[in-house]
Every structure is written in C-alpha cells, then in structure tokens.
Amino acid sequence: MSRKQTPVADAAMLIRHALSLTEMMGTWPVEVLDELASIARLGRYDRRTPLMVGDRSRREVMVVITGRLEVEGVDADGMRFILSMHGPGEVVGLVRLLKNTRFVYHFQACEGTVLVHLPGDPLLAVLDTHHILWRDVCMLMMSRMHEQIAMKRRRALGHTANHVADELVRLALIHGQVLEGSTALRLSISQSELAAMLGRSRQTVNKELSALAQRGLIDVAYGRVTIHDLDALCRAAETRDVETGDEAGPGIQA
Fold first, then answer.
1. Are 165 and 236 in contact (CB under 8 A)?
2. Which residues contact 147 (CB under 8 A, 6 or more apart)?
3. Cα-based torsion angle of the residue sequence 199, 44, 50, 88 in order, rounded to the nearest 10 degrees
4. Closest Cα partner for 188 from 45, 69, 44, 79?
C-alpha cells in the first residue's frame, strides 16, 4: 500500500530534482526535465510492498529516489528469483517502453521506498520530440547489457563460492555504504535475497557466506553483510580452484 501523499507542489519539486540526479537524465535540458516532471507521479511504499504484480502489461518507467527496489519473479517451479536490485538515482524498467508486451516479472520495495513513476506513452512522446535524448537511453541499456554478458561469463567460469563472492562485490560497488571511520562496506541484503539473485538455495549460500566470514573477508548479520576486504573478496570471486558440490540452479534469464 502506498504511504501518505505529498503535497502537489512539494512532489513536483522532488520529482524534478530526482530526475536531474539520474545518470541517464542528468544532462537533459531544463525544459525537458520540467516536461517530464509534469507527466510524472510520486509513489511512497512500505517495506515488502509489491508493484505491478496484477498488471504485467503496464508500461511505466521508474526512478528510485530513496530506498531499494527489486526486480523479481517466479520460475516454472514456483521459486522466487531476483533479477536485479536498484537504489537511489537509478532508472528502472526502461524495457517497459515496449508495446504489446506482457512482462514476466514485477517489482518489490525492499524497504521504505520513494519512486518517480513515468508513464510509457507520454515518456515516449517526449523522447520522440527530442530525438537526441534517445542516445542516453541507448547508452544506458548497452551498459546494462554489457554488465549482464560479463556477469554470465563470470558465472559460467566459476563455482558457487565464486558466484557468491562475485555478487557481493557487484552489489557492494553499487549499493555499499562506507562505515564511518572504516574502509568496510555495509550492504543491506538478506541471505534469502542473495540466494534468490544467484538461483541457489539459502542453505548453500549461507555455507559460502560462512566460509568467507571465517576468512575474515565479511561479517554476516540479519539483513546485512559487512565487507571488510573488498580486494580480497574480488580475488575470491576470480579463484577457479574451488572444490565444491554445486547444486544446479534454475536457468534465470532477464
């Protein structure tokens, strides 16, 4: 359920500011941002609020202002999987600009989250009026495609131990918060969420997290992982001589 509404004037200012902070829209002309702010709406969501579960065809792009948003779904065996996780300043759901498409995933607010919602057709109209802006959209999509290819390559070469370390590194570089007076990075993620992102059981992921903790690379607590040595964790992600009894995970494709 959406939280209490923000006064219209305050919401418009917040939306306009949020759009200007995104990587994709940060250099767009002021008049374009004003036009986008006029068609957008603000949404506030409590922890564990699902979005678009009952409307798989809704064409809407979102921008995360605060909080964390997961892109998730359910596989053929009824198991939940997480495709990606997004934080403040990220544009989510660009693929939903496609028409006549029923999307097989939905979204979930992982914590208290504030979003900007941009409806598909009005957003397309703005982009078509200012053709040069499509370049920024394409560059962002190509960057994400490159990361997906690189991630699949890393996953194909390693074992579950490598995959767990690799995912922690990837998430830490995007979402990690530096602890005051320390070089450690705190990552807000549960073991269940990490398992869903990797397509492995929680027990298997917990085993690998415990091994990394025993080596002093991380600490694991309820709903968070603290990374003490990011460089060593990177090396753990790349080590190929790990003996493991990997279980087969579902073939997850975005």
1. yes
2. none
3. -20
4. 69
For residue 173, pLDDT beyond 70: yes
Q: Which two tokens stand for residue 191?
A: 């073991």
Q: Give the β-pairing of 113-119 and 41-45.
A: antiparallel
Q: Please state whether beta strands 224-227 and 185-187 pair in parallel, antiparallel, or not at all (unpaired).
A: antiparallel
In the DSSP assignment, the letter for residue 47 is T
Length of the chain: 254
Running DSSP on this structure, what letter comes out for residue 2? B
Contact between 96 and 57 (Cβ < 8 Å): no
Buried b (16+ CB within 10 A) or exposed e, 91-114: bbbbebbeeeeebebbbbbbeebb
Q: What is the pTM of this model?
A: 0.76
C-alpha distances in Å from residue 53, one per residue of 84, 173, 240: 16, 29, 39
Classified as helix, coil or strand, 80 is strand
Please report the pLDDT score of residue 242 as a whole number.
Answer: 46
Strand, coil or helix: what is 82?
strand
Alpha-helical runs (H) found in 26-131 = 30-39, 120-129
**Amino acid sitting at position 51:** L
* Residue 187: φ, ψ to 5°: -120, 120
Q: How far, in Å, CA of 44 to CA of 205, rounded?
A: 32
pLDDT per position as a tens digit, 5-43: 556 668 888 999 999 999 999 999 999 999 999 999 999
Mean pLDDT over 223-229 rounds to: 93
Sequence-ordered alpha helix ranges (H) in the chain:
8-20, 30-39, 120-129, 134-157, 160-175, 191-198, 202-214, 230-238
